[in-house]
Amino acid sequence: MAMQIIKIQDLVFTYENTSQAGEALRGVSLSIKQGEFVGLAGQTGSGKSTLVQLIAGLLPAPKGTICVAGLDPSQKEDFRALRRKVGMVFQYPEHQLFDETVLSDVSFGPRNLELSNPEKRAQRALMLVGLDPAIGERSPFALSGGQRRRVAIAGVLAMEPEILILDEPTAGLDPEGRNILLSVVERLHREGRTIILISHRMQELAPRVSRMVVLNEGQVLLDGTPEQVFSQQEKLGEASLAPPPVTALLQQLRAKGWPVRGDLFTVPQASEEIISAWRQRC
Ligand SMILES: Nc1ncnc2c1ncn2[C@@H]1O[C@H](COP(=O)(O)OP(=O)(O)O)[C@@H](O)[C@H]1O
Ligand SMILES: [Mg+2]
Fold it and tell me: 10 Å Cβ neighbour count for 129?
């Protein structure tokens, strides 16, 4: 059985500076196995970014317990070790590119962590995100939006983290840019990394992840396979989350009495389901 690489119990977190009462996380318990690919969904404000920043040790100590690869993210002395284990890709990571060339930017992390051969690591990371290492000579600012974002992700991968967290990595990209990026994430998972992918687009998560965790108002509302999550129509509605469009179509047909499943989420599966129901219509 795979090891639990992240163990979270009864996590409660309140931002110090908030004027409005209320906790950002209200008792979250969650364990993630090594090599798992978890999709984290939930409305804006449900606590997704807070949860992953706590995992990465980027916020003050919460209440409850949290253990990441044997380290305690709330302990200052574990922070350096944690930075090597957990790679965090923030929203719009390309805003943090700053160096003159792509290579010096991507090798910044490993240099800063005093890892050996920072430039070799950077070149490997560029290849991992599907960019030609020759791009290393160019200025990050001369690249397209989608390329810049992949450069920023390479900067995190260059530190070779075991756990990779991506917070809304496809926001603001066109469909092609989104697909390229998501296939990069899928490949990183196949190579054995533990991945937490945040998105409010359920259709983006469902076909890729083995497990979906849905947060609502700082609590875990649903946790299971995409099929298990999408079959909980009422709870999804409670969190004001829409299932993928193709799942919604199946659920509407079901409501009209069609004998179809309401938990499928890919177009080929759904069309097969609808065609076979249609064939049996009389
Ligand atoms: N830096 C901050 N200071 C104060 N409150 C915050 C801060 N960041 C988030 N919050 C609040 O914490 C709650 C959870 O936010 P967040 O974790 O960003 O949710 P999500 O990523 O799901 O949109 C929200 O109520 C939000 O307003
Ligand atoms: Mg967020």
Answer: 23
